[in-house]
């Protein structure tokens, strides 16, 4: 995996409106899990915005990243034979991370992370599509209304960035393949969605299947 600090990214790229839409959903999904979630492992941190938001909400957050320049609590390479104690965290969150691994390695990492969480994994992945979206909001309503027409780019095998090995929607990576990988890891999908305003980020709330 290439270190994010080696890419010379401008911080403004992670402070865009679209990124803050994703930060909103990341925080909202965690908060919606309620008081059962207290101890969180966050994998992939870059500018630490989500880390700070979660800690300000009273969560105990352990950070993990492959990039030592980011000074994570745990130096973690998901492509290695890493070990995390089983049932260690209430939730593990990783947003826009797994696509930086070859798909087979991302499957293996997902399985290990499923063992390390007590109950939940919250993930976002890139969803490569051609889309048409309309937002309508009236002054007398609290919520906007949306129309989204979304067509996955199944005819293409080229991710939007060279740092990605794969993206949902591209040739060979339909949603059903992701669903199979989730099930193989011992997880079930509790919730999945894209935001109509920023459909490139595909969110999954995954729940651990506990054998009786």
Question: Can you describe this structure?
Answer:
By secondary structure, the chain is α/β, with parallel strands linked by helices. Helix content is 22%, strand content 31%. The protein has helices spanning 17-31, 49-56, 103-116, 175-184; strands at 39-43, 60-65, 74-75, 89-95, 117-126, 129-136, 145-152, 187-195, 198-208. It has a 7-stranded mixed beta sheet, with helices on both faces. Strands 6-7 form a two-stranded antiparallel ribbon. The longest helix has 15 residues, at 17-31. It starts with 16 loop residues before the first helix and ends with a strand. The mean pLDDT is 91.
Précis, in short:
The chain is an alpha/beta fold.
List the helices and strands and how they pair.
Layout lengths: L16 H15 L7 E5 L5 H8 L3 E6 L8 E2 L13 E7 L7 H14 E10 L2 E8 L8 E8 L22 H10 L2 E9 L2 E11 L4
Parallel strand pairs: 1-2, 1-4, 2-3, 4-5
Antiparallel strand pairs: 5-9, 6-7, 8-9
SS-derived structural category: alpha/beta
What's the count of strands?
Answer: 9
Largest sheet: 7 strands, mixed
Question: Which sequence of SSEs, written as H and E, runs from N to C?
Answer: HEHEEEHEEEHEE
Instruction: Based on Cα principal axes, name the global outline.
Output: globular
């Amino acid at each position: 995996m290439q270190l994010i600090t080696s890419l010379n990214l401008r911080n403004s790229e992670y402070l865009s409106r679209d990124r803050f839409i994703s930060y909103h959903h990341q925080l909202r999904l965690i908060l919606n899990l309620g008081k059962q979630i207290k101890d969180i492992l966050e994998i992939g941190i870059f500018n630490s915005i989500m880390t700070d938001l979660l800690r300000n909400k009273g969560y105990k957050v352990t950070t993990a990243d492959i990039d030592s320049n980011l000074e994570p609590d745990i130096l973690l390479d998901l492509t290695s034979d890493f070990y995390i104690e089983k049932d260690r965290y209430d939730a593990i969150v990783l947003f826009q991370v797994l696509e930086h691994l070859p798909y087979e390695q991302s499957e293996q990492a997902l399985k290990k992370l499923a063992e390390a969480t007590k109950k939940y994994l919250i993930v976002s992945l890139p969803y490569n599509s051609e889309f048409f979206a309309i937002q309508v909001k009236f002054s007398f309503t609290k919520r906007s209304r949306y129309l989204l027409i979304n067509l996955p780019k199944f005819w293409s095998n080229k991710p939007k960035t060279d740092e990605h090995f794969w993206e949902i929607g591209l040739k060979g990576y339909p949603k059903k393949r992701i669903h199979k990988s989730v099930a193989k890891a011992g997880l079930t999908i509790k919730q999945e969605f894209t935001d109509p305003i920023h459909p490139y980020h595909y969110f999954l709330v995954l729940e651990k299947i506990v054998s009786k």
